[in-house]
Design goal:
It is a single chain. The protein has 4 helices and no strands. The chain has 87 residues and is mostly helical. The two termini are 21 Å apart.
């Protein structure tokens, strides 16, 4: 799910459903994935569609910054899950 989330929302939803089936809804991986699904977005889609709609031609630092935020979201989602759900 971590590799598909930046590129495709439907692929990450399928990976999320498979993760829920395998580990159960109340497990730590499922709770982390739930927080990650709610707190992140498909940044490749956003860069492609939103930047082209306003005419931005040079998105030099947008992709590296979005990738850094996505990596931060992964660690933060697990931290938030551990703090709020005590797992």
């Amino acid at each position: 799910m971590l590799f598909t989330r930046p590129f495709s929302g439907s692929a990450s939803s399928a990976a999320f459903a498979e993760l829920m089936q395998k580990y159960g809804a109340d497990s730590f991986p499922a709770l982390c994935a739930s927080v990650l699904m709610g707190g992140s977005d498909t940044f490749v889609y956003i860069i492609g569609v939103y930047f082209s709609s306003v005419g931005v031609k040079k998105s030099r630092y947008a992709f590296p910054a979005a990738l850094a935020v996505m990596i931060f979201c992964v660690f933060l989602s697990c931290l938030v899950t551990r703090l709020f759900f005590g797992e």
